Every structure is written in structure tokens, then in C-alpha cells.
Amino acid sequence: MPNTNKIRLAIYIFCSLIVLSSAAQSILPPLIEWHGKSESLIAKTNDPWITAAEKSGFVTTPDYKETMNWIKKLADASPLLTMISIGKSVEGRDIFMIIASTEKNITAVALKKSARPLLLAQAGIHSGEIDGKDAGMMLLRDIAFGNKKSLLDKVNFLFIPILSVDAHEHSSAYNRPNQRGPQKQGWRTNAQNLNLNRDYAKIDTKEIRSVIKVINEYDPVLYMDIHVTDGADYQYDITYGGIGKQGYSHGIREWLEHTHKIFVDKDLTANGHIPGPLMNAFNDRDFSQGNLVTFGGPRFSDSYGDLRHLAAILVENHSLKPYKQRVLGTYILLESTLKLLATSGQTLKEITRKDKAERIAKIPTGWKIPQIQNEVSFDSRTAKKETDANAGVPDSMYLLGIAAVIRRSPVTNSDYVEWLGKPETKTVPDYKSTQGIDFITRPKGYWVPASSIDVIERLKIHGIKMEILKEPREVTVEMYRITDHVFEDDNHILQPFEGHIQVTGTTKTETRKQLFAAGSVYISTDQPLGDLAMLLLEPASKDSYFSWGFFHSIFQRTEYIEAYIMEPMAKKMLEESPALRKEFEEKKAADKAFANDQNAILTWFYSKTKFYDDRYLLYPIGREL
Ligand SMILES: [Zn+2]
After folding, report:
1. How far is the CA of 552 from the centre of ligand 1 (A)?
2. Whole-prediction pTM value?
3. Gap from CA of 323 to ligand 1 centroid (Å)
4. How far, in Å, is the centroid of ligand 1 from the Cα of 296?
5. Strand runs (DSSP E) across 89-175, as ranges?
6. Helices marked H in 38-184 — which ranges?
7. How much is the mean pLDDT over the chain?
8. Is the pLDDT assigned to residue 21 strictly greater than 50?
9. pLDDT tens figures, 467-487
10. What is the secondary structure of 233-281 as a DSSP string?
11. Which residues are bridge partners to 419 per DSSP?
């Protein structure tokens, strides 16, 4: 091939690649030009510790190997940084964490005991949303060799650069169509196709088990989980916060809203960023009907933190803002949080101690938007919302929005939103699910039978304290009988979610003398993780092990009786009990299908004998009152 043709071919291939990789970028809503003071944080090209993202002008992000090699080199060169593995993924990759501290002893035991407040921040739980990794690398570099060492004078810092390590290497230019950079992004779910930010209650994954181990062993005072949104357009480039009024840690919530948010927003604004609260379009499309913030339940990092009385912040950078802007905003957020902890960390520690000491007599297992009972619901599983035009009056918020028009689609013949890229500020309703529902009275404790091995294992990993029976013990407990249950389905087709078939049920209580075998455990609710234990063990809770399907075997009846035995037995039962006869006649009169179903009738009589399977539909965990 002549040289000119080779060059033409090379140019053609090069251009095709650009077209392909920017295919999604070119159809994104208009880009708003941004410059801010935080740009001065970017290392000069001759800086020996320039990060890969900085070197590329924030076009690309380094892969796992390049990231970890760079951090290892940095940690080897600095006495302030130590890199450790906190666990391995299913594909065998180490999940690394960097300990940044000026203390001599940096073991987990020592840092847990240390008077200094400890920040734990993690990036890449959804590895395509990787802003936190590149921000953290810059910040660690500036702590080690820049002018940011003083951040560690009074605070210790733990940083996980990539949590979903396998998914980070499942990288492509086609993973996140709604996001402006980096050029290639990791995948949302881990190698098992499980979403790590739905795994905090059921803890099926090694990644989340590793993080919870860190939380238990190091006892951070603040936990930060860094994401990037999808969804509607607005001016804010960085949105973050705790879970707000809904939740189980009232002192922590106040601190996050009235101390942290105010302090950090000021720093972000001074650096040219536009911080905002967590945003979800109420109608799933635009903000014409307002914003909606819900309590997702302990399957999510922020709700999980709140439930175990650990200040937890969810960070959602805005996917339509350029990568550079997002990384720099995250840097400021991390730096500002470390600064605040130096002055206010002791107060947060004290507040946390108080929240951990609370033993609320009745706690809700769910939350709804007040005033709008049964008219607005939100299913965190499907993210489907049911709205009602007559909904009650919520709070309002001053929204830094982006102008939009509703257009008619020639493709679907329906309306869709087009974002115009122009700032539009307006006041909109701000819905929050702050009203507790389905309250549960706090028992003294729970008895979990030895047979529930998967559940006991998980409760231990959460750090819930328990007494393990060495000998069998008979105790009087309250137990739930499931009276009605439905396996989660989608239009009557059973649909697994995160590898589980979920179930919801109604219950009635029975007081029973129950024998618990050796190996069974007793869990007192008089402990800091008592609230967490309740939401994991009460069937009414959407994130309980019952709801996640760990007790499906109770839905199967064992043993049966032959009709030739049941016939004379039923006849005898009717002769001996006029009350039973009355109940039987009434049931036949009320239920024609029953009256004409021999099997149903004999099963009905069978269920009233002592031969019937007593464990059928009996939730095996006992409540000690
Ligand atoms: Zn995410």
C-alpha cells in the first residue's frame, strides 16, 4: 500500500475511533463552560508527582494497575502514607486502602483508640463514577509533597481509591452514556453483576464485607461514599449530604446539615463550584414538580451509616459536568471535610456517642412523605414513583436549575424533556419522606436459631454483638406467623433482584416456649447496633433478611396426611366440638370454592390437629420482650 494510502487509512481509523468514543458525548445536553479557583490545584506538567488524570488534562483516568502502582510509589516515598489491602475481590484483585496519618502507631486498634477524628472516604463503589479516585490521588500527593500536610495535624484519613475493583477493569467508552468523561469508565455492578450500593444490609459481596470490616475495626467518625449522578440537569456540579430528617441518628443529622454542609458549601463556592443538596426529580424527568429525597433503607451506604449511628455522606457529582470540574470539586469537598474535622471532629464524636446510646422504644421500619398518605409512594427497588396531583404541600427549595422544554417525540409519540443549557432559577416543592411508618416495638433481644447460619454469619460481619448458646435453651418468646405473603414480581412474573427473590408478608404474633439448639444466638437490642439488628431481623423491614429471601424454606409445608385417615378424624372432631362445627358451616357458607374442594376441607381440618406442621409459615426468630 502506498504511503499516502496508509496515512489516509490511519486517519480514517483514528477519526472513526474519535466518533465512536464521543458518540454519547455529542448528544449530551449543552456544556456550560466552567473555570474556578480550584484549577490552581492541578499539578504543573513538570511536577514529578503529577497524576495520570492531570497529565491527560482530565480526559482519561488510569486503570487499576497504573493507579495502584502510582499510589504505592507515593506511599513508599512518604512517611505519612501507608497502603494496605483490606480484602480481595472475587477475581482476586486487592482492594487497597491508604492510611494517611502523622501518628506513629497506625494499626486499626491504635487509630480506633486515637483521640483524633477519623475520616473514611471511598471512591468507585460504582466504578464508572470514579471522580473520587483521581481527586483523592491529588489530595494525597499534596498531603505528602505539597502544602497540605497540616490537614493531618489533628485528623486521620482513610481512603479507598477503588472499591469495585473488578468492575473498574470492565472499562469502556460505552458504559455511561449520560456522563461527560473520563473517556473510558468502569461498570456499575461488580464481577458477580451485583450492585454494591444495594448490598449494605444483605452483604453478599466481598467488597462491602471488606468495607464493613474497616468500619468496625477503625471506627471512623465520618464515612463518605463518592458517586456521580445520572438523571436531570441542573446548575449544581456537586451535590451531597446525609439522609436528612428521615432516619435514626438525630444528632448526627443536625451536625451534617447545620455544621458540615454549611462549612463545606462555603469552601466549594469560594473555589468556583456550585454545591447543592441531593437531587431527584419528583416526576423522574425534570423539576417542574419538585425535588424528592427518600430514605432508601440500609441496603444503601448512607442509610446504613445512619442506622448504625455513623455520620455518612453520599456524594453525587453531576454527570453532565466535565470530568475536570467534578474531580476538583471532590478534592475541595475532601479537603474541606478534613479541615472541619480538625475543629469540629470532637463535637461530632460526642454527638455520635449520644446517638449510639439512644434506645428508642418504637422505631419505624419505613418512611413516607408526610401529609400524602398512600398517595405518593416510592419503590427504592424499581425507583418507580406513584404521584398524585392532589399531594399535600411540601417544603419548598430555591432551585438552581437549567431551562428545559417538553417536546413531542416522533419516535415514541410521547413527551420528552430537552435541556437547553441555560441557567434558570426558581422555587420548587421539596418532598422528603420524613414520616416514619410500620413502627416496631423494641424487644429486649432476638433469638436466632442455629439453623439460620447465613443470617448469623452476616450479623457477625455487621459487628452486632451476640451471645452464642453452648447448651440448648428453652425460652419464652414472641414469634411471627406469616399470614399472607407475596413474592416480588413484575407483572406476575417472578423477578430476581440482586440475586434474590424478595418477599413481603403480613404477620400475627404467637407467644411460644421455644427450644433453641446449641449454636443459636441471642442478640440484645441494648447495644449501639440494636437499631440495625431490628431492621435486619423484623420481617416488616424491606431490608430484613426475611424480605431478602433468607427464610424461604418456611414457605414449604412438611409431612402430610392420607384422606382415609383424615376422613374419620374430621368426623370425630365435628362430633366432639360444636364450636368447630359452627365454624366449619360458616366457612362453607362464606366460601363456595372451599365448600366444593375436598382437599381444601381436609387440609383445613388437618391444620386444626396436632399433627399439622407447626413450623409452617413460622418465622424462626424469637423476640424476647
Ligand atoms: Zn453511583
Report:
1. 30
2. 0.91
3. 15
4. 13
5. 94-100, 118-123, 156-160
6. 52-55, 64-77, 108-113, 131-145, 165-169
7. 92
8. no
9. 999 999 999 999 999 999 999
10. -BS-SEEEE--TTSSS-HHHHHHIIIIIHHHHHHHHHHTT--EE----B
11. 404
Question: What cell does 14 get?
Answer: 483514528
Residue 264 φ/ψ, nearest 5 degrees: -75, -35
Pairing relation of β-strands 362-368 and 435-441? antiparallel
Contacts with 15 (C-beta within 8 Å, 6 or more apart), sequence order? none
How far is the centre of ligand 1, averaged over its atoms, from the C-alpha of 212 (Å)?
18
- The pLDDT > 90 percentage for the chain reads 85
C-alpha cell at 181: 468523561
* CA count, 13 A, side-chain hemisphere, 460: 11
Q: Predicted confidence band at 493 (pLDDT cuts at 50, 70, 90)? A: confident
575 grid coordinates: 362430633
What does the alpha-carbon distance between residue 546 and residue 502 come to, in Å, rounded to a whole number?
8
Residues near 386 by Cβ (< 8 Å), separated by ≥ 6? 376, 377
- Model pLDDT for residues 413-460, shown as the tens digit of each residue: 999 999 999 999 999 999 988 899 999 999 999 999 999 999 999 999
pLDDT at 1: 45
> What is the Å distance from ligand 1's center to 597 Cα?
53
User: What are the grid coordinates assigned to 106, written together?
Assistant: 497506625
- CA distances (Å), origin 556, targets 372, 481, 517: 38, 13, 22
Per the DSSP assignment, residues forming a β-bridge with 261 are none
